[in-house]
Design brief:
TIM Barrel; seven-stranded mixed beta sheet; globular; binds iron/sulfur cluster; Anaerobic ribonucleoside-triphosphate reductase-activating protein
Length: about 160
């Protein structure tokens, strides 16, 4: 898996102060996509063990307390990204159990494959669905268009 950007301190992509990773690769091709550069799986740089270690280190950093980790893209739940993301969220929940994990995906929660659903026990919030330009609304928080839904998975479990 490649990633486009990593922000060790981020206050706009989810609740509280967070670490945020934007992965490369997305096949949803939404009209009006905010970042078409993210569509290519070859964009950005390789997500390696050193980057994973850095995220864990940042989440454990007590000087700036992070509420959790945000995974966005691109699409973290694209089948090509899934194994790496699954391994990352498992490690975060094991080593940083007090941190929450938010995931943005273009897939609908109700339409996730069995393989994609494997991530659900390890994450706290999922914002689902493609960006639909006709339903775009800048007043929405954490969503670009009104069709997208914020699911707090603990409430559903
Ligand atoms: S799901 Fe997100 S990254 Fe993918 S095309 Fe749609 S807006 Fe762009």
């Amino acid at each position: 898996m490649n990633y486009l950007q990593y922000y060790p301190v981020d206050i706009v992509n989810g609740e509280g102060t967070r670490c945020t990773l934007f992965v490369s690769g997305c096949e949803h091709k939404c009209k009006g996509c905010y970042n078409q550069k993210s569509w290519s799986f070859c964009s950005g740089i390789l997500f390696d063990k050193a980057m994973e270690d850095q995220i864990i280190k940042d989440l454990k950093d007590t000087r700036i307390r992070r509420q959790g980790l945000t995974l966005s893209g691109g699409d973290p739940l694209h089948p090509k990204n899934l194994n790496t993301i699954l391994s990352l969220v498992k490690r975060v929940k094991f080593e940083c159990p007090d941190k929450d994990i938010w995931v943005w995906t273009g897939y609908k929660l109700s339409e996730l494959s069995e393989q994609q659903k494997q991530i659900l026990p390890y994450i706290d919030v999922i914002i689902d669905g493609k960006f639909i330009q006709e339903q775009a609304d800048p007043s929405l928080i954490w969503r670009g268009s009104a069709n997208q839904v914020i699911y707090r998975l603990k409430d559903l479990k």
